[in-house]
Amino acid sequence: MAGIHLFMGDRKPASETLHAWLIVMKAWQSVSRYVLPALVGHGLGESDFRVLEILLHKGPMPVNAIGPKVYLNPGSVSVAVDRLYKKGFVSRVECREDRRVRTVSLTEKGRQMFLPVFRQHTALIKRAFQDVSDEEMQQLERVLKKIGKRAEDLAERKALHSLHKLQSDFKAPQ
Question: Which of 52, 66, 92, 160 has the smallest number of CB atoms closer than 10 Å to its CB?
Fold first, then answer.
C-alpha cells in the first residue's frame, strides 16, 4: 500500500489538471471568439484559413497532405479546397502519374486576398498575448509542448495497444 501511495503522490490531483485543462480550453475559445469575426468578415471560415495558411507558408501540396498538417479530416479539407477553388483562391492540378492525387496551390488572387488577412490575424493574436511577458511566453510554450508531446505519446501507445489486441484476436488457434 505504501508503494501505491508513493506512486500516486507523484501525480497532480485530478482536480488541478482538470482545472488547468479547462483554463486552456477557455483561453482557446476566447481567442477564437476574438479572431474569428475578422476571418468571417473576409468570407473565410476557420478551415479555409488553415488551408490558405499552410499553402502560403509551405507552398503547393497534395490535398491528402494538407489535413494532417492543419488538423482537419479529409472531408473538411476537400470541402474547404472546393470553396476556395470556386472563389479562385486556389488551383488544383491532377498528378500525371497518379490521377487520384491532386496538388493544391495558392493562386495570385488568393495570395493578394490572403496576405492582408493573415497580417491582420497575426496582429490580433499579438494583441491577445500583449500582457504576456517574453519569459511567460517561453514558459507557456515549453509547458504546452510538454503536454502535447505526452498526449501524443499516449495516443500512439493506445493505438499500438489496440493494433496488438486486434492482431492477437485474429491469430489462428494453435
Answer: 160
